[in-house]
Amino acid sequence: MDHQLADFTATAGTRSNHLGHWDDPDRVDPGVDVRIAQERLDEIVLEMADVRDAHRVLDVGCGFGGTMLALDRRLHGAELLGLDVDHRQLVTDRCLSPGRPNRFHWLCGDGSRLPVRSSSVDRIVSIEALWHVPSREQFLQEAARVLVPGGRVAVVDILVQPGAGSVVGVDDLTVEAELSSTFDPWPEVFGSVDQLEERAVAAGLRPLGHVDATRQTAPTYLDHGDAHRRPGDAAFAGSAGVRMFVALHLAGALRVVYASFERPRG
Ligand SMILES: C[S@@+](CC[C@H](N)C(=O)[O-])C[C@H]1O[C@@H](n2cnc3c(N)ncnc32)[C@H](O)[C@@H]1O
User: Fold this and answer.
1) Domain membership of residue 89 as a residue range
2) How far apart are CA 46 and CA 38, in angstroms?
3) CATH number assigned to the domain comprising residue 105
4) Which residues line ligand 1 (CB under 6 A)?
5) 20 to 30 A from 239, CA-CA: which of 22, 176, 181, 206?
6) Residues annotated as catalytic (active site), given as ranges
7) 260 - beta bridge partners?
8) pLDDT tens, 113-137?
């Protein structure tokens, strides 16, 4: 996670550390700030989670708090819990708490062992963190445990399709090794949305639907005025893992999926 801290310092505090979303990826204005597209992704996930005023909302893998701020802009009288395994990011988050319409709490913990009471959370959101947790099954079981009956969880997951290597001319072991070397930890690289939904059902959650946003998130790599930081630029010093991630994404062999689930009542 060191590169994330370095990036955060270098960009003077961009708090969203996730892809952008363009509703029409065929009509992207390169002059538009990528941050607007990141806010759009937050907005879509918060809609899928159906967050409401006065809810107790848990953001798993909250990072630098971008989604917590999006929740704060949208809600009143809510209790917002930001959880991350990386205490260094949480240190930068604590200054965000005072004087807001909602109560903030910051928790250091692992997405597969949530330090939260059972049946105590109305909504869970988790943007691009699920692929890092030690086990998706355990995350989903924990979500089912801590949500109130009728509560919802909305996630953004990154799923590499089995056989993806052939799309970029290498074998799947190379894909796995390169991605894991940069995006460590990434315990389970290959998967599908069907598998994710089956696991959710096994954990006691009901799938509410999903969106494949692979195309809508791909313009993240275009020049949005900060080309030297983007993989398409000649001066970009991205690692082999980043280059692999981008190549798979642009080829559609890496799927960006937004999915939501409910803990059924009764
Ligand atoms: C790609 S960043 C996304 C951060 C944030 N959700 C956002 O959208 O800006 C992934 C985050 O997951 C966190 N993370 C990694 N492993 C985790 C785990 N086991 N439990 C909770 N968070 C984890 C990282 O520290 C990082 O902040």
Assistant:
1) 2-14+34-157+188-213+257-262
2) 12
3) 3.40.50.150
4) 1, 16-18, 60-63, 66-67, 84-86, 89, 110-111, 127-129, 132-133
5) 22
6) 128
7) 154, 209
8) 999 999 999 999 999 999 999 999 9
